[in-house]
Amino acid sequence: MSATTNPGIAVEMSDEKWYDKWMWYERGTSKEEKTLLRKLDFIILTFGCLTFFTKFLDLQAFQNAYVSGMKEDVGMTGNDLQYTTGVFQAGYCAAMLPSNLLLTRFRPNILIPAFEVVWGVLTLLTAYAKDVKHVYIIRFFSGIFECVAYPGTIYCIGCWYKKSEISRRLSLFYIAGPLGTMFAGYFQSACYTNLNGVNGLAGWRWLFIVCGCITLPVAIFGAVVFPARPDSKNPSWLLTADQVALARRRVNEDGSEAPKLKLDFKVLGNIFKTWHWFAFVALYYVFNQSMITNGSPFNLYLKAHQDQYSISQINNLPTGQSALSIVMALVGCYWADARGKHWEPSLFICAWMTFGSICMAVWNIPVGLKLFSFYIAGLGGALNPLFMAWASTVTFKSAEERAITIASMNAIGQALLAGLNIVTFPTFRAPRFEFGWYWVMANNMIQIGLVVVIMFLHAREKRRDETMVIEARDDGDVERLEVGDFKKDIDS
Fold this sequence. Notes:
The two termini are 23 Å apart. α2 runs antiparallel to α6. By secondary structure, the protein is mainly alpha-helical. It has helices at 7-14, 31-73, 80-101, 108-126, 132-146, 149-160, 163-195, 203-225, 241-253, 265-271, 276-290, 296-303, 311-316, 319-339, 343-362, 367-376, 383-394, 399-424, 434-474, 483-491. It is globular. Helices cover 74% and strands 0% of the residues.
């Protein structure tokens, strides 16, 4: 059966230029929608970027502090670095699902900033740790209170934006993380150079004080401007009643549903009846394993060659990974939105990561190629927003499915990463990590296979949905079908 096409819409679509798809606002966006989107970008992305920045600032600060004096000052030995990471991930992953499910029941503009206040205080307390036991306790609770910020912001972006608008927003949200990683290196260099010994505190302790003093104001800012879900009563004091109504209408017409009034086992059970949860959780797990080369191993490689690299270089050189990640995240997410195919930039990035991991597995290669392989591991950071945006798009219709899928991806990926990291990259094996590099290489290859599998499953699902819509229309169950809206749904 053939579909009837509206000539006016067809002409408008045919006039679309290639660069129109790369614009921040989609072609045909009304003046009222642009005003709404500008406000949403400010109240959601500004706080989202700042909270993600502070999260990665904290994570990387710990790595930088370890190689800048903390190891000796608190008596860390052997695999203590991996154990503290494991303790952090234990708290992070244990609290992930329940805290993110709460986002469908309570106001995110209260829950997320409240958690951030506590983790800011814990970051400050790290500066005063006297021994490794104190570090373990602080890192465990830091994990609990950091767990909601990242998946929670992604969930809220999925609540307020249309499917075709999500990836480019997530790219901006994501790059705040690598920026935090980069600035942690610069902060540590500055603290070591300018504050080391001030008031009797080592430079690495000042780093945690500075990071904590950055985190707390961000939490207060979030409490003031961040919105609740659009289905909430008075979701934001910065939006007018007409703008709230427009926001609700846009996402409803795009297929999104408000959270169910009653959360029961039937609602949760429906989530596991499709391939979505299983495929994206598996993909994100493999992604985390393939990204182990990004961060600590590079620092430890440089630290093992202290006769060639200064403390400042050990902290600053790995920031190139983050810079590359930022560029690729912007390009990759815009690519996904413009083409409507998340798998294309994903496969491009996976291919380069596989090449780099093969080089590291071989190991006995020129130093220049080894550093190049470390740096292109940073490309994998762009897969984070790409995979999250892909999952958000596929699960767009159900608020509960979106929240649980995103939280599960993060929780399970991070949980298994914490345990396996001790086996694959034990500190005493630095910098060779022979088994670790082969492990990363294998996971990169599996990652390519999973991207291809999800590509086929999603394509099959879209064809099925298209057939159902056409059959319903021909049977008279659908009174009107806009060609433009239909095409966006099929291309997402």
